[in-house]
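Example 3.2
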Amino acid sequence: MEVMENYNKQYRNEKLERAKEKIKELKGFYIHFTVYVIVNLFILGSIVVNSGWDAFFNIGTYFTPFFWGLGIVGHYSKVSGSLPFFSKDWENRQIEKYMEKEKRESEDFLKKK
């Protein structure tokens, strides 16, 4: 019975740690997005104040928001788990792969003794 209680406790702790990590990632995304909005509003506002509305409609004005926006989309994809590369499934497969490798190496080492 004690073994099962320890297992359940460990399982709950693992779930809690995963949830905390997910919240940390989400918080990081929200901070990144907030900085993106504030900085780009400042940049666009500065362009309008210093160069007038003609510069506002220049394509070069939007390079920073566009390329940084691509980074925001990538960050969101990673946080939401919709990124096909480096998803949680990929991470779990890699963890299993390395755990299996470690197990084989340990077994090989013990067989040599």
